[in-house]
Amino acid sequence: MRHSSQLAVAAFLVSSLCSACAFGDRHVRLEYPPPGPEAVAAVPASAPLAARTIHLGVFTDQRAERGRIGEVRNGWGMHTADVVAENDVCEWVREAVRTELERAGFHVALDCPAPGGLELRGEVLRVHCGAYMSYEGEVQLSGELRRDGAVLGRYPVSGKGSAGTNWGATEKGYGETLALALQAAARRLSSELSNGLRTSLNPVP
Prior knowledge:
The chain has 205 residues and is an alpha/beta fold. It has helices at 2-20, 89-103, 171-200; strands at residues 26-28, 53-61, 70-73, 79-85, 107-109, 118-131, 135-147, 150-161. It has one domain (2-200): Double Stranded RNA Binding Domain, CATH 3.30.160.150.
C-alpha cells in the first residue's frame, strides 16, 4: 500500500511539472553521439569488412512532418507546444551513420565513388519525440547501397530511445532521447549493411 501511495505521489508531481512547463515551443540542437558509455562503445570489425570503403551520399528528408521533431503535452495529455530542430536533421542523421559505419570498421568517404565503388544513400522517414510521463523517441531511416548506379540492397531500419522520466519537457531531454533513438537506428543500419556485404557481395573489389 505504501509503495502504491509513493507511485501516486510521483505521478502527481510529474503531471504537475508537465502542466506548469507545457507552454512554449522547445528549440533543440540535435547532437550526436548521445552522452553515456554506449556512445563510445565500438563494434568490433570483422576481417572481411575491415577497411572497406563506403562512399556516404546524401540523406533526403521524407518525413511527413518536417517542421517539428516532437510535441509538448500538459498533465492531461493535451498538445500545447511543438519541438523544433535548430540544425539540419538530415545532416545530423548522416553524421551518425558515418560514425557508426566507422565504428564497425568501414572507411567512410564523402566524395563521389570511383567506378566499382560502393555508395550508401538514404532517406529520413521519421524523427519524433513525445514526452508525457517519460520521453519516448523514434527515428526511422532507409539506406540504399549502390554500385555503378545499380541498387545492391535496401535497408529500412528504426530505433527507439528514452532519456527517462519527463521532469519538465526540457530541450536536453528531447535531444538526448532522439540521439539515443538515432544511435539505435544507425547501428542497426550499419549491422544490416555489414551482413548484406558478407552474404551477397563478398568478395568486393
